[in-house]
Here is the input.
Amino acid sequence: MNIGLKIRELRSINNVTQDDLAKAVGISTQAVSKWENGGLPDIELLPLIANFFNVTIDYLFDMPSHDVDNIEENLVQYIVNIPSQRERLMALMELCWKIVINIPGRSTEELRSLKNITDRNEISHMEVTLNEGVALMRIAKEETFFFVAPKPENYYNYLLNNKDLCIKAFKILSNIDTFDALIFLNSRINKNFTPNLLVKELSIDYERAEEIIKELINLNLIKITEIELNDEIQKTYSLEKNPAIIGLLAFMDLIVKRPNLYNCYYGNDNIFFKK
Here is the structure.
């Protein structure tokens, strides 16, 4: 790749203007424009340009770099330089995709953009099962997520530590009204509500709405807030922010609706399937 095009690409990714770059390296805006239209920077400016964008000089020339000393810092810098939170999350998912397909070893799939895969209508699934742990990724337009779990020394027995509480939680969530309430509350803007909201949205009676709220309070999924209204104290409720709920529901959906396998690697049998 022409170095000028690489500089233009880096400016775009980092939301940097030609003037910003020019001031940082001590040259004119016209010089930056000249680079991006086929010119070449003076050789003594290359370290300044590379440092400004936190990349290597090899990267400017689109050459492979074997310097991994600062890879963690470079990844952090790459993410924080992305302007919007949604774009950061999507960039993070792209990185997860590149990582998970290469856990078994270098994959020819790495050049395929995650976006090209999510543009398809069907749901796909990447799965890696090794003696050392598991990793999986669901790939779809609206249902993409990533999970990795290295195997602990004591295998996964820690999952039994709260077995009774987990079984109790599953029993509570197995009721369709409670399940619907949890989905509904997680899909709305989190603000205070009363049982009347569940009565209206779920077509249930007030007593059942109160019962659902009590169940979700016991699971630490809802908190109580008391407010003074017309010289009376009234209880209102709000959802406790807990991203594990999204993960739980996503994994339950994955269990009951297992998708087509895109890639599946089982380390024990040394088999690699591709769809």
Observations:
- Strands lie at 124-130, 133-139, 145-150, 222-229, 232-239, 260-266, 271-274.
- The chain has three domains: 3-79, 82-156+259-274, 175-245.
- The chain is about 45% helix and 15% strand.
- The two ends are 32 Å apart (CA to CA).
